[in-house]
Amino acid sequence: MSTASETPKPHILIVDDDAEIRDLLSRFLSKHDFRVTTAKDGREMRQALQDWSFDLVVLDLMMPGEDGLTLCRQVRSESSIPIIMLTAMGEEVDRIIGLEVGADDYMAKPFNPRELAARIKAVLRRSSSGAAVETDDDRPAKVAFADFVLDSATRTLHRSGSDIALTAGEYDLLVAFVDHPRRVLNRDQLLDMARGRAAIPFDRSIDVQVGRLRRKIEMDPKNPNLIKTVRGGGYMFTPEVQAS
User: Fold this and answer.
1) Which residues contact residue 38 at a Cβ distance below 8 angstroms, ignoring those fewer than 6 apart?
2) pLDDT band at 195, cuts 50/70/90?
3) I need a surface site. Which of 71, 127, 163, 196 has the fewest CB within 10 A?
4) Alpha-carbon torsion 122, 126, 127, 129, what sign?
């Protein structure tokens, strides 16, 4: 029996021009404690975003008319809502571009709906849109580095009194760096810490996320001082980190 204190089901928006995929995902996710709305194109997606509040968007990359990349850019310019892109199998370039324009994760078609449900839950756990945000009891509520303050309670980054918008993926990557300052972290370690899954061969998603994060925190992203590339090793977060 439902109670007033019961946690509401996460509301997922599925955007795909394939009616069979929309129907399959709607039925499957509805059976696994999600509330689902579907859209077949950008027009229906924008209308749904106006009419409802969503916790996450599953967005197909290849659609006629406005494609997924265009729609991802539009959503990201207005909202930090988590986005999972659906891409064609083996299209690594498309996945990288999707991450560059603001997607939080991706899945290649064909996929197992059960795995997509697991990915959705993982992204929601990492996101401030999730009903329950996991925190590390050993981490101070706020930490300072350079002239930034990272607030884990609100999952926000501040600089000189101004908020810097971070996607869920960018935030989790920054937390991984802040938790391991002045230590070389390779791509597999960063994938595990920031994305909660093992790397796949030639997975460049961490490099893309690092590039996006650098553009938001570095004075000169092309010559970074805070996140250094270690040749043959990975990346190192160089500033001193202090409880704030």
Assistant:
1) 13, 14, 15, 16, 22, 25, 26
2) low
3) 163
4) positive
Q: Between the CA of residue 135 and those of 168, 215, 230, 243, what are the distances in Å?
A: 14, 26, 29, 16
Contact 127, 104 (CB under 8 A): yes
> Cα angle vertex 185, ends 134, 108, to 5°?
65
Cα distance between residue 235 and residue 207, in whole Å:
9
The partner residues of 148 in beta bridges, in order of sequence, read 145, 159
Assess whether pLDDT exceeds 80 at residue 144.
yes
User: Dihedral of the CA atoms 137, 140, 146, 151 (nearest 10)?
Assistant: 80
Residue pair 147/160 in contact (Cβ under 8 Å)? The answer is yes
Place of tokens 């959705």: 120
pLDDT tens for residues 98-120? 777 888 888 888 889 999 999 89
Condensed to tens digits (0 to 9), the pLDDT of residues 34-63 reads: 999 999 999 999 999 988 989 999 999 988
**Cα 98 from Cα 57, distance rounded (Å):** 13
pLDDT at 14 over 90: yes
